[in-house]
Design goal:
Strands 3-2-1-4-5 form a five-stranded parallel beta sheet, with helices on both faces. It has a single domain, classed as Rossmann fold. The protein contains six helices and five strands; from the N terminus they run E-H-E-H-E-H-E-H-E-H-H. Coenzyme A binds next to strand 1, helix 1, helix 4 and helix 5.
Length: 174
Amino acid sequence: MTYTPFIPEKTSESVAVYPGTFDPITMGHLDIINRGLTLFDRVIVVVAVNSSKEPLFKVEERVEMIRECFPDDADRVETDTVSGLLVDYAYTRGAKAIIRGLRAVSDFDYEFQLALMNRRIEREVETVFLMTGFRWIYISSSIIKDAARHGGDVSGLVPDHVCERLRQRFMQGR
Ligand code: COA
């Protein structure tokens, strides 16, 4: 069989979207964004709706916490929100890829499903999986919120300003 190479057109700027609930952003998410920036010219961090979750922070608060992480990289890291289909958003923003982080094998089933569904809806957007740094494989936003809710020290697992927001939020609830 003769192989006919398919060479896609090179776009001038490579853009990826990194979606998630980010309730709140953690060092694990930041690790993935930094890895993404070594591969793409620009990463758009998108606070998206996961209909099965009830977030602690409002969308605007989550966006603010993400923006505070990148005061100097504003041209390479953008933060936005999406309320509709993620792939439609990625396509209209000219993004070629959706970045997702993988921590453990347990992430795979869900990520596989999500990636295939996204591809079925929009074939021109690829999903790229990046391995989270080893020291973040056990954390998630939920486990951090749970620890913080019960007065546990989560410093080092989230940026300082996020740590402070968690502290304030749970003090209000007491
Ligand atoms: N480090 C630490 N934690 C990580 C991580 C990393 N590198 N990568 C993922 N996680 C954690 C998150 O903190 C989160 O924890 P939580 O469940 O305790 O909140 C969990 O893993 C997975 O969350 P996240 O990466 O935020 O994804 P999500 O499942 O909340 O988001 C969306 C899924 C939002 C991307 C998906 O629902 C979506 O695309 N929605 C838009 C609507 C749409 O297009 N739907 C159709 C999809 S086919």
